[in-house]
Amino acid sequence: DRAAELYEMVRACQLCALAATRTRAVPGEGPLDAEVMCIGEAPGVNEDKQGRPFVGAAGQFLGELLAAAGLTREQVYICNVLKCRPPGNRNPEPEEVACCEPFLRRQVELVAPRIVLVMGRFAAQSLLRTDASIASLRGRVHRYAAGEREVPVVVTYHPAYLLRNLGDKAKAWADLCLARRVLQDAIAEDGPSRGPETRTDGP
Q1: Which residues share a beta bridge with 76?
Q2: pLDDT tens figures, 47-64
Q3: Residue 150: exposure state from Cβ atoms within 10 A (0-12, 13-18, ≥19)
């Protein structure tokens, strides 16, 4: 299983200093035929303990946002740019991002989603290789090259940010509506079938 092999590589990774401070690496989880892929920034303390992405309050809020868009967490593949928690939840270092980038690219290739929802300024800047603000990246569709495909990308706020800034929830809803329209357009163009679902979890 290619996903299982990738997850084992993530768990065994010693490429940067985060390997010495992590409790558990957090590869990602979800069905490998998911139409939607959500990419966050880095694991937090709860994710580090459990080895799963988005399991704390931000994860619960992400579930609520997905439900409002007509999706369940079980339908979506979820991962982070970084696979290990930075100490104190500090911002990731460029070399840490560089070490994790091949893992993330391979995940996008394996899942081959119809759309990627990237959450948070750091994740968006890392994925799209830009230093632009999240305000300037929102509201339009970007492209991420993965293998022979270019996957549509929509940028939104990180759920943890939204929990602290509920006034921006309406903006996040607008982002989800954009992502849903892109997904619906892709389904109309390519057809609804994605094959049998195979769920592969990180732990």
Answers
A1: 36
A2: 999 999 999 899 999 999
A3: exposed
SS3 content of the chain, % helix, strand, coil (to 5): 50, 15, 35
CA dist., res. 122 & res. 144, Å (int): 16
Rounded to an integer, what distance in angstroms lies between the CA atom of residue 198 and that of residue 200? Answer: 6
Bin 100: left if φ > 0, else alpha if -120 < ψ < 50, else beta. Answer: alpha
pLDDT digits (tens, 9 = 90+) for 139-168: 999 999 988 889 999 999 999 999 999 999
Tokens, residue 107: 């995940």
**Euclidean distance between CA atoms 67 and 49, whole angstroms:** 26
Specify the pTM.
0.92
